[in-house]
Each structure stands twice: as C-alpha cells, then as structure tokens.
Specification:
The protein has 10 helices and 11 strands. With 285 residues, it is an alpha/beta fold. The longest helix is centred in the middle third of the chain and has 15 residues. The protein is globular and about 45 Å long. It binds iron/sulfur cluster. Iron/sulfur cluster binds next to loops.
Length: 285
C-alpha cells in the first residue's frame, strides 16, 4: 500500500495482469464487512482495512488517477451490494461509466431488478466507448456456501440472482474463487453444470492465506477447509502482499484451476482475461 492510498483510503492497488497486460485498479470501499465468509482474508488481524469512503471521494480519486489503469475492479474488502454499500456502488458506477475503462464488480449478494436496471444502464453507456462491464457472481457450490458463507444469500437465491443479471444482458461470469482444496471434483463439475446457462463463463482463483506464528496456518477463521488441503501433497507455494504492513501472504493455486481451464469452455484463471474474451466475442458491443 502506498502512502497516498492510506491518505485517501479509497483505492487499493494497481497491478498489471501478466497474461493480458491490462492494468487493474482494485477499488476498496472500506468500512469492513459483516458477512463473515470463513476464508475471507479481511478478518486476518494483519489485514489493514480502509476507512469507509463515500462515492464523491472514490470517484474523485479515480478521476485523479485515470491514466494509471485499464480495468476498474469494484469491491475487494467488503461486499459492494450490502445495504450500506449498494448506493455508493451504483452511484459511483453511474458516474464513472464514461471514464473509458472496463469495469467489473464482484458480489455474493443478489441484486434487485431495479439495481440490475441501473447496472444495465451503466453497461449501455459504456458501449459508446467500446468498453465492457462484467458482473462476477460468486458461487462455490451448495455445501461451501452453507458451511462457509452462512450470512450470504443461499445457493438458490444466488442462482436466481445470476440468472436475472444474465437475462438483463449483463456480461455475467461465475467466480469459483477462492478454489478451496475441500471442494471436491464432483462439486466443481456440479458448479459448472448448475451455472453454465446463466453466465458467459467462469473465473477460478487462488486461496490467500498467511502462516501463523505457531508454524501452522492461522489466518482467517474456521480454517479447517483451507488447512486440510494445504497439508496435502497438492500444496503449491507462491506469495503476495496486500501492503508493507500486512505481512507476506501465501497463495495456494490449486492444480485443478488449470484442469478446469483446459477442460471447459470459457473458464479463466484470472478475472482480467474476460475483457479480451468479450472484445473478441462481442466486437460490436
Ligand atoms: S462478502 Fe467478501 S469481503 Fe465480505 S466476508 Fe465475504 S469474502 Fe470477505
């Protein structure tokens, strides 16, 4: 985290995607998240949250840094469609629609029809600049949702939400991330089967976790689902950082990510990859 990001608190980081070369600006709304997903890195004591920011503050900062990024990714440290957040999310998206950037948002919540209409209107506005808006709907399967995301909408509610988003003409992708080691192969194939008619593709991703001082993985909460897999022979190591004060985080990239990318159509290992895909598939957007 850079010093100016601490002082403004609205943005999180800019990172260049290795495969597409696109620069991603991740927007943090700040203020924490009460949803309590068991694997969420924001609950780690070392994670440095951001102060809550309103739409004016976020849009002002994005405007100031407009030359630094190609993709705006909305939502990383809180659920953007929480009741307390959704008006900030929607009004900000409406105000940045002509910024000439691709935009995505990620959610575990279910948008109302009125909210979907507002998102569709933003996407329509962006078409004038040949930019895409992508909605990433999180869906880790019925068991993981019930066990690890007990305060988020149910699997059935989410399937309905992603279907309505998709039917409204929004480019909709399913987030299977973090791909937890305890999600079985059968469950993974089931996730693809249950959602494939309600989306333009799937994005599969890594688990972020941190080693504890006692030598075992500590982080988040209810770690058993992550720990079980990490002690298995499939463990792969890499590290990343959320900033200088948050310590080193390990990245668990499940080998099944590459299997899914290879076996299924329109499965991506990184969220940035959906934008070149959309540009190729929908050139007249
Ligand atoms: S909704 Fe997102 S930010 Fe909130 S607890 Fe779950 S993973 Fe974390």
């Amino acid at each position: 985290m850079k010093e100016n990001e601490v002082s403004t608190g609205a943005t999180y980081s800019v990172e260049t995607d290795g495969k597409t070369g696109l620069r991603r600006m991740t927007v943090s709304m700040g203020g924490g998240c009460p949803v309590g997903c068991a694997y969420c890195y924001t609950y780690d004591p070392k994670f440095q949250g951001y102060p809550r920011r309103n739409a004016d503050q976020i849009v002002d900062e994005l405007t100031r840094r407009v030359d630094e990024f190609d993709i705006l990714q909305w939502g990383c440290d809180t659920e953007p469609f929480l009741p307390k957040n959704k008006e900030i999310t929607l009004s900000s998206l409406e105000r940045i629609a002509r910024m000439k950037k691709h935009i995505s948002f990620a959610t575990r919540f279910v948008l109302t029809d009125g909210e979907i209409d507002r998102v569709a209107s933003v996407a329509q506005t962006m078409k004038a600049d040949q930019k895409f808006l992508a909605g990433f709907h999180s869906y880790l399967g019925r068991r993981a949702i019930a066990e690890l995301e007990p305060h988020a909408p149910s699997a059935d509610e989410r399937l309905d939400g992603m279907r309505r988003l998709y039917n409204a003409g929004i480019f909709t992708f399913i987030f299977i991330r973090p791909l937890l080691p305890t999600i079985t192969d059968q469950e993974l194939d089931g996730i693809i089967a249950e959602t494939k008619n309600h989306c333009h593709g799937h994005v599969v991703g890594e688990v972020f976790y941190r080693d504890s001082v006692d030598g075992v993985t500590s982080p988040n909460r209810q770690r058993k689902h992550i720990d079980l897999g990490l002690v298995s022979p499939t463990r792969q190591g890499a590290s990343m950082s959320f900033g200088p004060d948050t310590g080193d985080w390990n990245v668990f990239a499940d080998p099944r990510i590459q299997r899914l990318v290879g076996q299924h159509e329109n499965v991506f290992a990184h969220s940035s990859e959906v934008f070149p895909f959309l540009a190729e598939k929908f050139p007249s957007n």
